[in-house]
Design goal:
Length: 213
Amino acid sequence: MNTNDIIRLSELGVATVYEASGREGLIDIPLIQIIPNSRVAGPARIALCGQDDNLMVHAIIEQIQPGEVLVLSMPEPAPVALIGELLATQVKVKKAAGILVDASVRDVSELVELGLPIWSRFIRVRGATKTKVGELNVPVTVGGTQISNGDIVVMDVDGAVCVKHERVEEVLKASEERLVKEAALREKLLAGQISYDLHGLRDYVERNQNDKP
């Protein structure tokens, strides 16, 4: 896995990567994209915070490496702001690719001006405490998908997907192949053919209609 592979995954996008991975790794929650039309991919750097507490967000910042995606989680998702402008500023200075927040963000106008790509489950101003010691660099489950440090998180306007680090080359190859197939299909659709026939769906429907009693 190299930087160019990760950049290419971000270019290919969440939908293509998800389908090409065998529909694995979907982060299946409604995410708010703070920076419109942004797209990122990068290795996960994880902070599992105490419930309704962001002490571990402060703690993880010094560990962030350039190009990583900071993943912030709690034992139970809740509309509590784990990050705002001042914490996000520190994350940007560390040159993170973006942030995934399975909780809330606040200071949204300032975050938009800051320009660091952020995806969040909620936007709420309810403040977090700073008294509960959580864990750093441990696997977390977000939207039904387990994310471990070093797994590649891909995010864009469609949402987010996680690719296990050992599958990156395989999924990238499958994504490129899917792109080629879609380009060929698009040409046929532009020429007036329809997917109902191209995918054999008409035959399937008619065959199953004939099987009905």
